[in-house]
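Our consortium's second objective concerns turning raw sequence data into structural hypotheses that experimental partners can test. To show how far this objective has progressed, the report includes one record in full. It was chosen at random from the queue rather than selected for favorable results. The single chain below, 223 residues long, was entered without modification.
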Amino acid sequence: MKMKPYDLNKWFSPRYAIYYLASLLKKHGEIVLTSGRYKKEREAWIMGLALLGINKKTGLQWWLQVPEEDPPDMRAMTMVPNVEKNWNEMNDREIEIVQITKFTDNSIEDEILRKLNSKSYIKETSLIVYMNRNAFISDMRLLAEKLKGKINISDIWVVAAVAKDSPKHILFSLYPDFQVVNFDMFEEMSKIPRGDQLDITRAKGTNMSLYENMPLTKFIPTK
C-alpha cells in the first residue's frame, strides 16, 4: 500500500504520541527506549507528556507535530477562538527536548546549557526537560536563578514522574518565572475529546478525525 506523504497541516494529540510509543514498545521491546532509530518517537512522547500538564494549566487543548527539519525537535500549537472574526487562530511554538537520565553525567543546569549552546534557536523557542533519573532539587527557584542571564529562548519547563512508574507527574517552569502543575497522566488523557488528529485546513481549523493504527510515515517525517 502506498503511504500518503507527510502533511504539515496535520497535528496530533498528546494522547496519540504517548500511545504510539507504547505500541512500539509492545511490538519491538526495550530497544525502543535506547535506539537512535526511535529518537523522534521518544521526543514526541516527552512532548505529549508535557502537553498534558500544559493542557491542565491553560485549560486549552494543545497539539504536537514532528518537524521535517531539526531544529526544532518538536512543534506545539493550540487553536484559540477569535469570537469577533468567528474563526480559530493558531498559536504555535517551536520546542526543543532534552532528556536527563541516570547515564547523564552533567548537572541539570549544565545539561540545559549544553543543549541550548549546541544550536541557534528563535527567541520564541521553548525547552522541555524530561527528568528520567532520581534527582533531588533542594530549591527549584535557586536552579532557576542560576539560569537567568544565560538563556536565549522564551521558557524552560521540566517534567518528571513523582515516583518510578507512577502516572502522577509534576511540570514546573524554571524560566522566565516559576510555576508548578501537578497532573495524572491517565486522567488528563481521558479529558482529551475523541479525535487524535487535527487537520487545520478544514472547517476553520476545528475538524477532528480519529485514526487507528496510523502508519509511522504519517506521524514521523522520513528522509
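The partners drew two points from this record. Residues 10-218 form one domain. Helices lie at 14-28, 39-58, 108-116, 140-147, 185-191. Both points have been shared with the crystallography group to help prioritize constructs.
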